[in-house]
TrEMBL record:
This is Amino acid/polyamine/organocation transporter (APC superfamily). It holds the Pfam family AA_permease_2. The keyword Transmembrane helix applies. InterPro entries: AA/rel_permease1 (IPR002293), CAT_C (IPR029485). It comes from Sphingobacterium allocomposti. The chain crosses the membrane at residues 33-55, 61-80, 92-113, 188-208, 220-240, 252-270, 290-315, 335-358, 385-403, 409-430, 451-468, 483-500, 507-525, 531-549. It is a multi-pass membrane protein. It is found in: Membrane. GO terms for molecular function: amino acid transmembrane transporter activity.
Length: 560
């Protein structure tokens, strides 16, 4: 049984299966891929979570964007090598099947549901908030009980009963109004986010009818969203007050790193274009180029807009869900705020579209391997899209977006994505060791890490001893139970670095994939323990499904 769980698929076998099973239309070029990448990356992250990140970390969040992009570059290089070697729609799922075997492939495929389907719930909720704001600008109001998750209204009502009306913020008052005005079944108020569910249905329909139609719509929306971001940057420069950048990191390193999930969420998506490999004209050439290009473009946009936002308004005012529109209202430029609200709706729609494209194609690939029902591999005879998987994705995204709060999903999405990124970087090390890299048309530049990885480990501890005494004292004051409860992931990080140093010395590991593993693992360790508990529960559910269905029906294990 153990040997079956870790049985790998060869590159030739994967390519044969994809050729026999795919009926997808090959229509995408490098420009289309860059457009889809920007559409995925520049979405809810920059239009909503960037405000919360700035509130927590101040102007120094711009540096966290650069650091996170730095981590993503190493991961993007690893994805690019895999995409040039195995140009099929399974993304990290397929890459794990090649490098680590079936069980790890399933775990990654299940984790990718968090990155694409679950994160799209955040995007849909963010879209709803901007859409409602836009309608208000035109004098159209939707009842509050139709525009928010019930949790917001219930929290506002409880806060009202505890602290009174004076303690309620503007958002809390909107939640209280929704609670009081909502129709009821008995004593239960009926509250849900109708616009979030509606846009998910409409985008799912567009994805269902064709990749070419989706790509054209994405190209138009990307042009609009990049245009509005440039407009915000260029227009906002005139309202920047340098004193707002002081203090630069008001809450110190903890405040900056506490926003890792929100900032990383803003970068999620560059890997999504690897799921369109079977619809590319020349995937082995175009996918690596597109990943790097869209990541560089988006990083420049993020840093510029973060500095402008925190320069226009003091960071303490940015704890809002529509920061780009808010800052122009704050400085009295209401017309610009209205333009931002309208174009933000279009911009976030494009991100929703790309994620709705990605998830069905991963399920389609898993189904072709026998790990999911055959229905997920159905390709529509007319539209040439994975029809059944697309419909299921629409349902999986639409229903939670009606009823759940946005912040519940942001951290959870980041955990699943970090996990996938680490395994993809580790997969490149395996490809180098096994000789598979010889089949790659694009390779991560090789820098011998034989000595550097270990020296970096020693240097890190020297720097902690010299400059990290506050952190050392914090650890000394903690009990063993507290360390396990709150710092176990940090211990895992150092243990992994030590193991990589030893193995790197023995096997001459390539340095860049190792850096990708360590940076992603470090960022992962900054997430809260509660998110990890939910993630582990998510993986356990996935393993139940695998052993209940996937293990028995796996084509590889049956010898098909």
């Amino acid at each position: 049984m153990i040997s079956k769980l870790f049985r790998k698929k060869s590159v030739d076998q994967i390519m044969t299966d994809a050729h026999q099973g795919s009926g997808l239309a090959k229509v995408l070029g490098v420009r289309d891929l860059v457009s889809l990448g920007i559409a995925a990356i520049v979405g809810a992250g920059i239009f909503s979570t960037i405000g919360l990140a700035s509130y927590e970390g101040g102007p120094a969040i711009s540096l966290l964007f650069i650091f996170t992009a730095f981590a993503c570059v190493f991961t993007a290089l690893a994805y690019a090598q895999f995409a040039s070697t195995v140009p099929v729609s399974g993304s990290a799922y397929t890459y794990a099947y090649v490098a680590f075997g079936e069980l790890f492939a399933w775990i990654i495929g299940w984790a990718l549901v968090l990155e694409y389907a679950v994160s799209n719930t955040v995007v849909a909720i963010s879209w709803s908030q901007y859409f409602v704001s836009m309608l208000k600008g035109f004098g159209i109001s939707i009842p509050g009980w139709l525009t928010m998750a019930p949790g917001y209204a219930l929290d506002a009502h409880e806060k009202f009963l505890t602290d009174g009306m004076e303690a309620l913020s503007v958002a809390d008052r909107a939640g209280l109004d929704a609670y009081l005005s909502a129709p009821r079944i008995g004593d239960i108020p009926i509250i849900f986010d109708f616009p979030a569910g509606l846009v998910t249905v409409l985008v799912t329909w567009l994805v269902y009818i064709g990749i070419k139609e989706s790509q054209r719509a994405s190209n138009v929306m990307v042009m609009i969203k990049v245009g509005i971001i440039l407009l915000v940057v260029l227009g906002g420069i005139f309202f920047v007050k340098p004193e707002n950048w002081t203090p630069f990191a008001p809450n110190g390193l903890n405040g900056v790193m506490g926003s890792v999930a929100a900032v990383f969420f803003a970068f999620i998506g560059f890997d999504s274009i690897s799921t369109t490999a079977e619809e590319c004209k020349n995937p082995q050439r175009d996918l690596p180029r597109a990943m790097i290009l869209c990541l560089v473009i988006c990083t420049v946009l993020y840093v510029a807009i973060t500095l402008v936002l925190t320069g226009m308004v003091n960071y303490t005012e940015l704890n809002v869900k529509d920061p780009l529109a808010f800052v122009f209202k704050y400085v009295g430029f209401d017309h610009m705020a209205g333009i931002v609200s309208v174009t933000s709706v279009i911009a976030i729609t494009s991100a929703l579209l790309v994620y709705q494209l990605a998830q069905p194609r991963i399920w389609m690939t898993m189904s072709r391997d026998g790990l999911l029902s055959k229905r997920f591999a159905r390709v529509h005879p007319k539209y040439r899209t994975p029809s059944y998987a697309t419909i299921v994705t629409g349902i999986v995204v639409a229903i939670p977006s009606l009823f759940f709060k946005m912040d519940f999903f942001v951290d959870l999405t980041s955990v699943g994505t970090f996990f996938a990124f680490i395994l993809v970087c580790a997969g490149v090390l395996y490809m180098d060791y096994s000789g598979l890299s010889a089949k790659s048309k694009f390779r991560v530049p090789y820098i011998n890490g034989k000595y550097v990885i270990g020296l970096g480990f020693v240097l890190a501890w020297v720097l902690i001893y010299l400059y990290g005494q506050e952190s050392v004292q914090e650890w000394q004051q903690m009990s063993a139970v507290d360390i396990i409860r709150h710092k176990s992931l940090v211990l895992v990080f150092w243990a992994v670095w030590l193991v990589l140093a030893v193995m790197g010395y023995r096997l001459n590991f390539s340095l860049l994939p190792v850096i990708g593993i360590l940076i992603n693992l470090y960022l992962m360790s900054e997430l809260g323990a509660s998110n990890w508990m939910i993630f582990i529960a998510w993986l356990l559910v996935g393993l139940i499904i695998y052993f209940g269905y996937g293990y028995k029906h796996s084509k590889l294990n049956r010898g098909d």
